[in-house]
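Progress report, Aim 2. The chain analyzed during this reporting quarter is listed below.
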Amino acid sequence: MDVENFAIISTSNEEPSIDRKPQWIRVKLPTGKKYTELRNVVDRYNLHTICTSGSCPNMGECWGEGTATFMILGNICTRSCGFCGVKTGRPDSLDWEEPEKVARSIKLMGIKHAVLTSVDRDDLKDMGSIIWAETVRAVRRMNPQTTMETLIPDFQGVERNLNRLLQAAPEIISHNMETVRRLTREVRIQAKYDRSLQVLKFLKENGANRTKSGIMLGLGETEEEVIETLHDLKEAKVDIVTIGQYLQPTKQHLPVKKFITPEQFNKYKEIGMEIGFRHVESGALVRSSYRAQKHLL
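Predicted C-alpha cells for the chain:
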C-alpha cells in the first residue's frame, strides 16, 4: 500500500547527510478557513483520514481544495514491505458497514474529491475487492457530486478482483510501483514489478478512465533506472505519475540512501512529460494523493 511518511525541517545550512534532513524537506503548517472547518468536523465526529494519521505536510493545501484520503479494510497489512510504516500481521475481521461509514465521513466533511486506499488483504479470497467496490458505490450514492481516486493493492493480479473496481468506475484507478525493478524484491517483498505493470495495463485496456502510479526515490536507484521505470509505466498505458522522496518511518525500515535534490525532481518531471504522461507530480514531499483533484483535468 502507499504510505505517507514525512520529516521535520532541518535548520542547518550545511550540506545534508543521510542522518540530517535537507532544507527542502519542509513540513507545511496547515492553515486556512477550509482546513479549519474540516479539522473541526474530523475532531467532532472522530473521523479517520490518512491526512491526519500521517501528519501529512500537504494536508492544508489538499483540504483547502476539498480533497482528503481515507484508508479502508483495517490498519493491519498482510504484507511486510521494507518501506511501509503500517503494522503487519493477521488483520481483524471485515467491517461490512465500512463502505457506508466512509461515505458518511465524506459527506460530513463536504469532500469534493476523495482518495481511497487500503492495506493488502491477501488473507481474503477476494483480497478485499468486494468492499473496495462497495465503498466506491456507497460514496457515489451518498455524495453524487464527489469524484474519486482509488489507490488499490495489486489483488495478486487476479482479473475478477480488478474487474470489480472497473465496474464501480471511479474516475481514477491508481496502483503504485513504489520503486525500480532492481529494488522491488527488497522494497516490496511480496510484490512483483511485472505484475504491477500488468495490473496497470489491464485496468487501462479494460475501461479505466485514467490510471495512475507512483514511485519513491532515495532507496538506491539510479537515474537510468528511474527513467526505465517511467518508460515501463508509459508502455503500461499509465496516464499520471507521482514521484516523491522516500523517508524512513522507523529505524527498523529501509534506510534512506540519498536525498534527491529539487533540481533532480524537476528533471524527472520534464522527462516524464516528454515521455507523454498526462500529469507528472515530482518533488520531495509529493505523495500519491498530492494535487489529486487536478489529475481529473
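Confidence is low (pLDDT under 50) at residues 2-17. The longest strand covers residues 210-217. These observations will guide the mutagenesis work planned for the next reporting period.
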